[in-house]
Amino acid sequence: MIITCPACSTRYVVPDSAIGAEGRTVRCAKCRHSWFQDGPTLAAAPPSPAPAAPAEPTPVTPPSPPPPAPPPPSEPVTADPEAEAVVVERPPFDEAPPSPPVVAPDYAEDDAASQFEHEPPFRRRRNPLRLWTYAGVVFAIMVAALIATVSYWGLPDWVPVSRPIFAAGQSDLQLDFPADQQERRQLPDGTEYFGASGTITNIGSVTRNVPPILIVLRDGHDRIVYSWEVYPPKRSLAPGESMTVNQAVTDVPRSAKVAEIGWKPN
Predict the structure, then answer these.
(1) Domain range for residue 1?
(2) For 15, 86, 98, 147, which has the most beta carbons within 10 A of its beta carbon?
(3) Phi first, then psi: what are they for 108, rounded to 5°?
(4) How far is Cα 237 from Cα 249, in angstroms, rounded to an integer?
(5) CATH of the domain at 201
(6) Helical (H) or strand (E) element with 131
(7) Torsion angle, CA of 256/261/264/265, rounded to 10 degrees?
(8) Does the residue 129 lie in any domain?
(9) How far apart are CA 94 and CA 245, in angstroms?
(10) pLDDT per residue over 74-129, tens digit each?
(11) The pTM is what?
C-alpha cells in the first residue's frame, strides 16, 4: 500500500502486513512527523448468484447489460528511493501506560531529618529581662564615655548652659591688678584705649607654671562687650618670685565701663 505524510506530503510504499488491518502509528523518515495510518481496505466479496427460477413454459430472457468499463489507470506513484517509512510500535490496547515515578518529598532526601520529628508549634519567646539588661549596660557605657569626654574637653560652645567666665584660682599663684592701675581713655585721634597693669606672685614653696590671663570689659548693664587673652612674660615662677604684667588694647567699645581680670578657663 502507499502512505503519504500529512506534514511534508512524502509518499512511501510499504507492505500491507506492516500496517495491519487495524492500522498503526508511523513516522515520516524525512520530517520526523508521526501519525496514525489506517489499515488497507479489503475488497468486497462478489455477490452470490441468485437461485434459478423454475422453468416456465415460454421463458423470455432479457438482454444482459454490457460489462462495466474498466477504471482509468491511476497516476503511477514514484517512491523516493532515499525515503523509508518508519513504523512506530504502538502498545497493545489492553496494556496500561506506565505510571509516573513517585517523587518523595524534600524532607525524605535528608537522612538526618524525619517527617515524624517533633517541631515546636511556635517560636520561642524572647526574654525581656535579658534585653533590658543589655540595654542598661549599653546606656551605662555611653554615659560613662560622655562624662569622661566632658571632663577632659569641656562642654561644647553650642550647649545652652551657663559657663564660668574665669577659671578657678591657681594654687600658690596670686593675681594683683588694682582698679586704680586700669586706665581707659580716648587718644587724640579718637581711638578708644584701655591699659591694664598688675603683678603675679608665687606665694608657695614650689615652682608653678603660669597660665594665661583673661581680661573682660563690661558695659553699664553688666554685659560683656569685649575680652582678650594676656600671656604673661614668664611661663613659670619660683617660690616667692613675682612678675609685672602690662597690657593695652585699642578700638575697645565706647560702652565698656568696668574691667574684670582672672585666669583664662581651659
Answers:
(1) 1-41+76-92
(2) 86
(3) -75, -20
(4) 26
(5) 2.60.40.10
(6) helix 128-153
(7) -90
(8) no
(9) 126
(10) 444 444 444 444 444 454 444 555 555 544 444 444 455 555 555 555 566 678 88
(11) 0.39
